[in-house]
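hiii so um. not sure if this is the right channel but i have a protein structure encoded as tokens and i wanna go backwards to a sequence. like what aa goes where. can anyone help
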């Protein structure tokens, strides 16, 4: 059952006493609707409106008072408008500004009603000057399936149970690493996982990848403010996958003639659409972390499986036993970023990497992670601890002595020393344990 963790979070929301309408944020085909349908099984009544349909959308334009609107919705759904265990799901809500504004009144006047809204193109509302009612809705990001959910989809309960053990038992390493390599190859899009689960063929996945990218390209006009911007966004989508986990510059991105401002707007629009995230650097080693938006960001795409397909590196992952070998190590970094994003329930959460303050400095740590009062450096690299020079430079400047290396080796914690002589604890975490990072950081501090 995919997105089990999202369904669990939806149940927690549904049981809250002071519950606001919930907005699900995420790209197309990440499983937003499927998760809600699974939640609906626990309700006495379920109403599903899809505002791509004229009849469903017209309900909101025909009624301006929420009590009459709800009566009309119930009549439309052929259920009795009674107070009880009822879930109302408004899908593709971006198609109706009136529906967006009505969320406020569902909260204020029919607070017993459980209301969830979703849409793949919610950023188009900002182009129209429409925003969600401030303080009267809450948000939950829905991203591609994590590795843990991937195991659930393949009914590999034994592996999932092993992952829950801290520390991880060494005998399970080879099996879990093999499973994670498969997850890295296919990615976490629910439809992809479903097809591979039944067919066990990567070749049969490629038309689905192609269809997803084509859909993203087709959607561009819906949230571009004009035809020129639509062309810039479409160019960005076509060339972004090849730049995954690379530092990019907006000016001339993808060997184009586009100016920095045009490309910046295109990337920001796609970021709002949850198709990518711009990962900006910081020079800070302690809180509060302040990203430097004047420096080049790295590019994190929605899903590693799509990156593999669009960049033509699927064969590499099939032939290599170590993820680090594929795409000059960029796939290893990208899947790590994807797993780190899956750890957060906040729509405001962003990834960052670390660089030294000097502009010409080459020191760069792949990611940083906030853990209690600490900012933890994370390197995605194979090799010995002594070769992690950028990580050493971070630790030399940090007010603590804890670092993480993500790699294909077995879990262990070692005592290491920076090149400058500072002793620190290095948490060596295999890829398949990234989604347990917070627990292992606490374990390493004991």
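sure thing!! here u go:
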């Amino acid at each position: 059952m995919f997105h089990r963790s999202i369904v669990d979070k939806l149940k927690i929301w549904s049981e809250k006493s002071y519950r606001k309408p919930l907005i699900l944020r995420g790209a197309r085909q990440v499983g937003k609707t499927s998760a809600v349908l699974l939640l609906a099984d626990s309700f006495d009544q379920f109403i599903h409106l899809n505002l791509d349909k004229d009849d469903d959308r017209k309900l909101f334009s025909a009624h301006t008072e929420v009590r009459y609107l709800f009566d009309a919705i119930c009549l439309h759904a052929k259920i009795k408008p009674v107070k009880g265990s009822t879930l109302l799901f408004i899908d593709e809500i971006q198609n109706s500004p009136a529906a967006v504004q009505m969320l406020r009144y569902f909260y204020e006047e029919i607070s017993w009603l459980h209301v969830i809204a979703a849409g793949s193109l919610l950023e188009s509302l900002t182009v129209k000057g429409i925003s969600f009612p401030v303080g009267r809705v809450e948000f939950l990001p829905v991203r591609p399936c994590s590795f843990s959910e991937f195991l659930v989809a393949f009914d590999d309960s034994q592996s999932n149970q092993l992952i829950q053990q801290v520390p991880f038992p060494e005998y399970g390493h080879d099996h879990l690493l093999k499973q994670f390599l498969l997850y890295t190859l296919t990615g976490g899009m629910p439809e992809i996982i479903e097809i591979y689960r039944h067919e066990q063929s990567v070749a049969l996945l490629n038309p689905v990848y192609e269809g997803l990218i084509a859909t993203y390209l087709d959607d561009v006009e819906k949230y571009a403010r004009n035809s020129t911007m639509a062309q810039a966004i479409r160019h960005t989508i076509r060339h972004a996958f090849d730049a995954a986990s690379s530092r990019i510059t907006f000016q001339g991105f993808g060997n184009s003639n586009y100016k920095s401002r045009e490309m910046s707007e295109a990337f920001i629009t796609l970021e709002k659409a949850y198709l990518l995230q711009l990962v900006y650097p910081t020079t800070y080693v302690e809180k509060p972390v302040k990203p430097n938006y004047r420096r080049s960001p790295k590019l994190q795409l929605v899903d590693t499986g799509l990156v593999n397909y669009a960049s033509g590196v699927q064969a590499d992952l099939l032939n290599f036993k170590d993820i680090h070998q594929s795409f000059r190590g960029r796939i290893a970094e990208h899947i790590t970023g994807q797993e780190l994003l899956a750890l957060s329930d906040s729509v405001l959460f962003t990834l960052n990497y670390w660089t030294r303050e000097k502009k010409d400095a080459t020191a760069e740590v792949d990611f940083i992670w906030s853990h209690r009062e600490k900012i933890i450096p994370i390197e995605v690299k194979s090799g010995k601890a002594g070769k992690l020079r950028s990580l050493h430079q971070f630790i030399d400047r940090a007010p603590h002595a804890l670092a993480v290396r993500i790699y294909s080796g077995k879990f262990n914690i070692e005592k290491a020393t920076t090149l400058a002589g500072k002793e620190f604890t290095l948490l060596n975490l295999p890829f398949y344990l990234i989604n347990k990072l917070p627990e292992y950081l606490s374990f390493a501090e004991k």
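oh and DSSP finds 19 helices and 14 strands in the chain.
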